[in-house]
């Protein structure tokens, strides 16, 4: 049995956009309020980066006088605004 060929871009069809079940607003708010602890990274599936952020917050919060918390605020704001590197989850799906 032969299956029909899959449609290609040459045929003029655009590739399907894969949407994430994750919401951009939720990820952004997690970043703004709990971003120093990597909550937004865990939510989007970036587990390793979330662990790095938790460790940085624990190890360097005193040394940086709390400035480490700006990291999460900046990333959360970029997620809410839909900045290019923050538009997708860990699987490359577009945030809703």
Automatic annotation (TrEMBL):
One of its GO terms (cellular component) is membrane. Residues 22-76 form the TM2 domain. Keywords: Membrane, Transmembrane, Transmembrane helix. It is a multi-pass membrane protein. It comes from the Bacteria. The chain crosses the membrane at residues 67-86. It is found in: Membrane. Its main location: membrane. InterPro entries: TM2. This is TM2 domain-containing protein.
């Amino acid at each position: 049995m032969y299956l029909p060929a899959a449609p290609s871009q040459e045929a003029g069809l655009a590739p399907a956009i894969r949407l994430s079940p994750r919401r951009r607003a939720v990820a952004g708010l997690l970043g703004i309020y709990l971003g120093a602890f990597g909550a937004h990274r865990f939510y989007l599936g970036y587990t390793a980066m979330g662990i790095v952020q938790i460790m940085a917050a624990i190890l360097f919060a005193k040394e940086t006088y709390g400035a480490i918390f700006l990291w999460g605020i900046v990333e959360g704001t970029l997620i809410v605004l839909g900045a290019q590197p923050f538009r997708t989850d860990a699987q490359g799906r577009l945030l809703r």
